[in-house]
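Run DNA-binding protein through structure prediction, thanks.
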Amino acid sequence: MKFSLAQINKNTAHNRSFHFKEDMDVSDLKTLNDDIRDIQTAYVTGDCIVRGKQIIFTLRIQGEMILPCARTLVDVPYAFDINAVEVFSTSEYLTEAEEEEEIHPVQGEVLDLAPYIKENILLDIPFRVISDEVDKENNVPQEGHGWQVVSESELSQQQTIDPRMKKLQSLLEKDKKEK
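Sure, done. The structure for DNA-binding protein is below.
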């Protein structure tokens, strides 16, 4: 989602704001955050206003992603609806106060909102989600890369004594016999 400075100045002439809406592919967020199992497009609407050397974007970002359940690892759809304000400055110099307020400098003649939209989506990911499914135990993954679920009966059958510890066990048994 890119806007040229000329386009912004033309559409915001006479203190008007211009409205935009666009679908944006954000599927590359899956590589940035392992918790996101699936995410396709985000629907972005917003307004742009120019005030002096500042360009202010008011954004609404909507979409849905698939996250793992914190208890069972079942896929849980999570709908997001984010309201964000991003401020950019065409000034060559930013003051410390502007940097603290997260005012972004404009590099070149094109302003790309994509990184800021993706950042807002990543910041909106909840710490954990819980599945509301009634039959969630049957949908739980039973194995993955380097792991699998084992019942207690299977575990007791698989337990064998490590050969390095066999010697220690014989010493403990000998000590018990002496008492």
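The two ends are 80 Å apart (CA to CA).
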